[in-house]
Amino acid sequence: MSLVHEIDYGTPASKSEKLVTLTIDGMTVQVPEGTSIMRAAMEVGNQIPKLCATDMLDAFGSCRLCLVEIEGRNGTPASCTTPVADGIVVKTQTERLKKIRKGVMELYISDHPLDCLTCSANGDCELQDMAGVVGLRDVRYGYQGENHTKLGKDESNPYFTYEKSKCIVCNRCVRACEEVQGTFALTISGRGFDSRVSPGMDESFLSSECVSCGACVQSCPTATLNEKAMYNIGTPEHSVVTTCAYCGVGCTFKAEMRGDELVRMVPYKDGKANRGHSCVKGRFAYGYAVHQDRILKPMIRSSIHEPWKEVSYEEAIQYAASEFKRIQEKYGKRSVGGITSSRCTNEETYLVQKLIRGGFGNNNVDTCARVCHSPTGYGLSVTYGTSAGTQDFDSIEESDVVLIIGANPTDGHPVFGSRLKKRLRQGAKLIVVDPRRTDVVRSPHIEAAYHLPLRPGTNVAIVTALAHVIVTEGLVNEQFVRERCDWEEFQEWAAFVAEERHSPEAVEKYTGVPADAVRGAARLYATGGNGAIYYGLGVTEHSQGSTTVIAIANLAMATGNIGRNGVGVNPLRGQNNVQGSCDMGSFPHELPGYRHISDDATRAAFEALWGVGLDDEPGLRIPNMFDAAVEGTYKGMYVQGEDILQSDPDTKHVSAGLAALECLVVQDLFLNETANYAHVFLPGCSFLEKDGTFTNAERRIQRIRKVMAPKNGYADWEVTQMLSNALGFPMNYSHPGEIMDEIAALTPSFAGVNYKLLDEMGSVQWPCNEKAPEGTPIMHIGGFVRGKGKFMLTEYVPTDEKTGPRFPLLLTTGRILSQYNVGAQTRRTENVVWHAEDVLEIHAHDAEVRGIRDGDFVKLDSRAGSTSLRAVISDRVAPGVVYTTFHHPVTQANVVTTDYSDWATNCPEYKVTAVQVSPSNGPTQWQEEYENLSRTSRRIAAE
Amino acid sequence: MSHNSTEKLVYMANQIATAFAAQKHEAAVEATRTHIKKFWDPRMRSKIAEHVAHGGEGLQPIAREALEGLQAPKAA
Ligand code: SF4
Ligand code: SF4
Ligand code: SF4
Ligand code: FES
Description:
The complex is a heterodimer of chains A (943) and B (76).
Chain A: E1 19-24, E2 27-32, H1 37-43, E3 69-70, E4 89-91, H2 95-110, H3 126-133, E5 153-154, E6 160-163, H4 172-181, E7 186-189, E8 196-199, H5 215-219, E9 225-227, H6 228-232, E10 238-243, E11 252-258, E12 261-267, H7 280-284, E13 299-300, E14 309-310, H8 313-331, E15 336-340, H9 346-360, E16 365-367, H10 374-383, E17 401-405, H11 409-412, H12 414-425, E18 429-433, E19 442-443, E20 446-447, E21 450-452, H13 459-472, H14 478-484, H15 487-498, H16 504-511, H17 515-527, E22 531-535, H18 537-540, H19 545-558, E23 569-571, H20 578-583, E24 590-591, E25 595-596, H21 600-610, H22 622-631, E26 636-640, H23 644-647, H24 651-659, E27 663-668, E28 680-683, E29 692-695, E30 700-704, H25 716-727, H26 736-746, H27 755-761, E31 763-765, E32 809-814, E33 839-842, H28 844-849, E34 857-862, E35 866-873, E36 881-885, E37 913-919, H29 925-937
Parallel strand pairs in A: 1-4, 15-16, 15-26, 17-18, 17-22, 18-21, 22-23, 26-27, 27-28, 32-36, 33-35
Antiparallel strand pairs in A: 1-2, 3-4, 5-6, 6-9, 7-8, 10-11, 11-12, 13-14, 13-28, 19-20, 24-25, 29-30, 30-31, 32-37, 33-36, 34-35, 34-37
Chain B: H1 5-20, H2 25-39, H3 42-53, H4 61-68
Helix pairs in contact in B: 1-2, 2-4
Bound molecules: iron/sulfur cluster (3 copies) and FE2/S2 (inorganic) cluster (FES).
FE2/S2 (inorganic) cluster binds at residues 50-53, 61-66, 78, 80 of chain A.
């Protein structure tokens, strides 16, 4: 194995379809119009020396190393900034050019510390390379002149250093931060000889606006910006292409290794979701995989009050299987179930649901998508016929108006956020519907045309009001609707939304959004060109989550914004494989490929291949499982890779449910919060230690590849297989590829998927089958999957979670860039420097009347429970609204969230809880009790 | 909301009925019935069926009508 080297073409590819023919060093080249001479030369394998150019960035033309000669033209133009022209004859290597280049390099080198042998970028430095390329053998100026070698190092960022003396002021980092990331954290400060890169106003990286995405580090040709790991470990010697295991963007990385040690994760330019970019989590926050908290041996105990006992896999598996059998014998077949993980691979998820349906003989399987995007599955499948987003991420490059509802892409889906911001800087218009002023509403060079700061819980009213304007002002795309949708249903819908009570003026009373802003936004979306909707959990996690998804789907149909590039309805999905876990039959009513369990033909296909009869009744959904556990009809559960105690709402109810189980099997990297109630612990393995696939928010199926042996001995799918065998339901896979072959054989939308295809194509978007052998980037082209698009009525029903004198404020929840969900991974990395605790954002007015100052400890009470955390005064939230994140178990924000949920899917209403906030001096009783429980429950008996 | 399960099931059934209430009555009843049949586990359906048999207190008309026409689930 060796390092995967990607060619740097020097400048980005041109999108022109017109071809231009020229001659470079005697070779004829044909390239698209607008291509730089540098890139054209690279196309035929001639690498022109360069320092300030790289193909992730627009050409800049500052280093003067890439000069060429063009017959019939004067001078020596820079090849990075000079576009090709028909018929020109270019020379990249002449005596004159050699001399100029040597001179340029001499100047750079004379001002450069010559500690190459001990430099962290030794062997990975473009300056070093170029010195060799131009044949520099001597520096006439000597090294004694004025130079920068004494400038210090900024080591404030936990993952990379900034060694000023090595900077050649090529500007690549500054441009990467602007063009690729869109943060504008860097500038060149000082002039001439004194100029240097500087974060913000000469701040340190950590205290600047920098979000640690790594784009500048990636683009820096020298060791000036360099990963600390390169300094500590050394340069990598081989690399493997794999996929990030954090969020639903699904960035492709090269895992660069030295032996079986991971040196760094480098974003892969060929990655179709990220196109060479990354965020701080995927790029740097992988340290959890080797964290000392990882549990590597199986453990069992007969009561949660006892300490854990380490045992062999065999013993743990036998114990779990015998317990499940005993429970089923005593309480019936449907008294056990399990939860698949959106963090695990498609193959693993498929296997867990197979074990439950085939081995347990019931359909009590669910997944954490229940608590995030289950309304998406429901809403998009009833209206369009597919439980997934309609576009690929590239589609954003052709959007003219972007409508973001209840999503915070720059924090939640950072790489998509960067791609979105790039499009907005090119002139696309932005509408944001969100109670909170998220970063994307106003950030450098971006200003939303409309921000509709609605009261939490009024999404349906706002989206229906947008539809009201579109219908009553004659902005419907009638041709599209007539052709593509059920006309009668449309008319019924149009009459419904046109009712005066749905007008922006009428709903303003309870949404709090000025009517003219709603009208303006509706007009812009309907008439501004390609209109694309992106939404997140701010849409789904409500008692009317599914209704809002339907309302969104209606809006896109009415305006004809479906079925081509630049438009569509796009759920920004949370976890790396939440799309995949849903596709793989993790829902209690559906077999893989979204086919209802009561469908005899589908069941028969599975029964034939699995060799077992299947229950035709839907199973319990996660919240129903807790209810049934408390009630005593649900007694055993197998949970793979989810921390339901921390992530699910109404913690007290969840813990009561878990405590009532007779056998809880938890498979995870760490003793997570759920494991406090477990009887069997099966160690999990990280994404670096196994093979498989993840499916991202674009329906893109991508490989994850094993770069080291599982530290716990087995990949997760192998452990599931052992458990299944012990239950008497045989599984004999020797590689996840075989599991994918079975998935393909049973699931029409995956029929064409196999590891060979994925290796060849890099990734593929489902449906991938005979009709679409190379996958489907854009859905519903020419017709909806269900036939005619279905308009549905969306009546606004206020949530029953209401504010009143006892609980006058509305709490809404979200997350931040550097932490991930319950934080089990990111809390175990240096990302904690950006977010050491959850805080409560509160408006100055609400704080003042309660006597709360910035930074005070406060108590947060709701009908469900109370917790305490620190308050931060913020104008991002409106008066009457407070906001927090849920990344830390000490805070347990979900102690206060209630068990109200979406009417269709039981997706919890995380986004609206009536609360009161008051000054406090310490943890609540619940926090103290829970802390005690955690301490005792995590004990492991000495051997 | 109460965790008492019958009360909770009544609440859920009403929520579903309300979501479909804007449609014509027949369609709303049918949609509610289909939804419950498709998504509720048998023990939940048995429990609410029992509640309906005992008068179905608290159920809104659409939900009640939907549930009255719902077949009892088979045993496992
Ligand atoms: S790490 Fe990213 S955000 Fe920070 S300065 Fe570099 S490019 Fe900008
Ligand atoms: S820090 Fe690196 S990328 Fe930035 S200007 Fe200096 S040498 Fe160029
Ligand atoms: S955007 Fe998401 S997938 Fe990409 S690196 Fe960040 S966490 Fe990973
Ligand atoms: S690479 Fe062309 S001027 Fe620097």
